[in-house]
Amino acid sequence: MSLYELERDGKAQELIRLLRESDNERVTARAAELLGNFDDHDDRRDVVNALVRAAQGDSEAVTAAAIDSLDELGDDAITELIGSMAGVDLEDDAADWVKAKAYMQALDADVAELRMAAANGLGTLDQADAVPKLAERFEDPDSRVRARAARSAGKIGDSRATTPLEGVLTDPKAAVRREAADALGNIGNRQALQALLPLYEDDDERVRRIAVGAFGNFENDRPVDYLVEALSDDSAAVRRTAVYSLIELLSNVPTEQSHEIRDTVVEKLSNTDDRSVVLPLVEILEESSQAAQRRNTAWLLGRVTSEEERDRVIDSLVDAISGDDQMLRQFAATSLAELGGDDNMVERRLLDIVKDDGVDPQIRGQAIFTLGKVGGERSRKTLDRLIDDTEHDVIRKKAFSAISKLGGRR
C-alpha cells in the first residue's frame, strides 16, 4: 500500500511506524508530511508525539516536514515541540509568558522551519515583550521566517515594532513586504500609516492593495491624493480597495474635518477620468452593515455619478430612502436631488413611494421633501391631492412645504 493510500484510508499508525522505522529519508519525510493531515483523527495524540520526536532527529528534510505538519495540526502541537526542545512542560494551562519565553528561545534554532513555527506561535500570544525578539528575525536569512516574524509582530500590535517594520518594507521578497505592510496597518499609529503611503506604487499588486487598504485608518486627509491615484491602478482589486478606503477615511476622521475632506474627495474624484469608482460605492451602500459608511457613500454618490451609472445609483438611493436609518435617508435624499435630471426618473421613483399608503409616514415624508426639489407638474398635482386625502400630519406638512416650492396649490 502506498503512502498516499495510507493517508487516504486514515492509517495513522502505519504512517507513524514508517516515520519511526524506515531507513529511507524520502519515505520518512513523506510520512511526516502526510501526518499533518490527521488533525481530527482518533490517534492524533500519537501523531503529535511521533512528529515531535521526528522533528528533533538528524535529518533536515524529515525535521522540516515534521515541523510543518505540527504547524498544520495547530498551536498545541507546535507548543509541545517547542516545550520539548526547551526542556519545559508547556501544558495547555501554562501561562502565556511561559510559552512566549520558550517560543523566543526557539527563534534562535538552526532549522528555519522551527524559527517559522516559533514566530507563528508568538503571534497567538498577547505578549508585547516578544516584539524585540521578533524584530531580530526581520533580518533572518530565510524569507519565510522574516515574513512570519513580521506577521506576528503585527498581530501583537505593539508600537515598538513600527520602526523595525519600516525597514522590512524594502525587503527584496514581495511576500515579506506584504506581511510588513499588513502588520503596520494593524498597528495603525501615525508613524506606521505614514510609512505605508509610498507603497501605493509598489511593484507587487498585493502589497499595493494592503497599503491602500490601510489608508482608511487615517484621521486626516493625508492619504486622499494617494487614494485617488490608486483609483487608476492597473489592478481592479487595488481600485476597489481604494474606494473602500476613501469611505472608511470619511467615517474615521473627526466630525469637524469630515466636511472639508468630503469636498476634497469630491474634487479629486471629479477630476479623474476613471469611472470605476461608482460600482464599488453602490455595493457599499447596498451591502455594508456600518451606518457611517453607508451615509458617506450615499452622500458621495450624488456628486460623482455620471450618466452611464445614473440608473443603478438612483435605484440604490431610492432603496436607502426606504430604510430605517433616518440620517441615511436624508443623505440619500440630498443625492437624489443632486441627480434630478430631465428624464423624470427620480421623480417617478419617489412618487411610487409617496402614493403607497403602506409605507411608513416618515419615509413618505422624506420622499415628499425630495420631490419639492426635483418634482414637476405631476408631483405638484399628486401632492395637491395628497394634502386633502391624507390623515397623517407629518405627510400633510411635508406636502405643503414641497408644493410651495413647485408653484403652490391650484
From TrEMBL:
Stretches of the chain forming a coiled coil according to its record: none
GO molecular function, one term: oxidoreductase activity
Domain of life: Archaea
Protein name as it appears in the record: HEAT repeat domain-containing protein
Taxon lineage: Archaea, Methanobacteriati, Methanobacteriota, Stenosarchaea group, Halobacteria
